[in-house]
Write a structure and sequence with these properties.
The chain has about 180 residues and is an alpha/beta fold. The chain is built from three helices and twelve strands. The strands form two sheets. Strands 4-3-2-1-10-11-12 form a seven-stranded mixed beta sheet, with no helix packed on it. A hairpin with a 2-residue loop joins strand 8 and strand 9.
Length: about 180
């Protein structure tokens, strides 16, 4: 299985269109969204081309490919307009024999992980900063944000397959990667 991972869209039509062009070119089994699809949140600036209604249309067109978890800026009304389910605070996927926990990051993250076993992966967004870290043979991955990167990071997304996690910018340059 090959996963295309994005986080923290925050209603940006511009950046969602850019990343979906990349998604369409690849051979991905699922589009994983780590929360904060539509609303920009009270602490964030308006992202470029803020248009939640247009973002809804694009995402609903991929409803059969999307696995999504709830972010801190997502609300009940978001679920009413999206044609795919937004899981609760986390979901569990299997990538071969590996367990992959997906969450937004505002509750569970490397500082407060879910109960993980050796070799498990915790995949989360929220912080808007790309990150790869291995702690005691457990993996913590953050793809960054496609629309509102922080700490001078680039707009980014990630790809996860059975043996590699790769974070790329929107020009498809590799920012960082790891084999596990």
């Amino acid at each position: 299985m090959k996963l295309f991972i994005i986080s923290d869209i925050h209603g940006s039509l511009y950046y969602l269109e850019k990343v979906m062009e990349i998604f369409k070119k690849g051979d991905y089994d699922k589009l994983v969204i780590l929360g904060d699809e539509l609303y920009h949140g009270p602490r964030n600036p308006l992202p470029k081309d803020y248009s939640p209604k247009d973002v809804i249309q694009i995402l609903n067109g991929y409803k059969d490919k999307i696995i999504a978890v709830r972010g801190n800026c997502d609300s009940e009304v978001d679920q009413m307009v999206l044609d795919y389910p937004i899981m609760s605070d986390y979901a569990l996927l299997y990538l071969g024999e590996k367990r992959v926990y997906i969450t937004h990051g505002h509750i569970y993250n490397k500082e407060n992980p879910l109960p993980m076993s050796e070799g498990d992966i915790l995949l989360y967004g929220h912080f808007h900063i790309p990150m790869i870290e291995k702690i005691e043979n457990r993996y913590f991955f953050n793809p960054g944000s496609i629309s509102l990167p922080k700490n001078s990071s680039k707009n980014s997304f990630a790809i996860l397959d059975k043996e590699t996690f790769t974070i790329k910018d929107l020009d498809e340059n590799i920012i960082m990667d790891i084999k596990f």
